[in-house]
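Read as amino acids, tokens; as here:

___
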Amino acid sequence: MICWRRTLKVRRQPTNMEQIEIHLYGKLRCYAPNSDPRSDSILRHAGEGKTIAWMVEKIGIDKRDLGANIFVNGEYSDIERVLHAGDRLALFPDDMQLLYKWYFARRK
């Protein structure tokens, strides 16, 4: 006799190494679950193979509030850069412009 088992698909939660760690600074902290300036403003999202622009849209950040200073793993980055599991994304608002962009090229 053959017994056919029904397989349930269980969605596994991504581990920290499979997620993108997003650090929000300045007025972008209001998009974090806890916007208290004394606490961390870190989000974690699954986003392997997605662009920074996609991630910004998913979080709900208005592009007018987002500045040109975007960093992935400490590298000045273009908004169309593709993210990978374990990346650390840092987003700065438009009112926190840094001199960084004058000295380093964006990585795509």
The domain at 16-103 is CATH 3.10.20.30 (Ubiquitin-like (UB roll)).
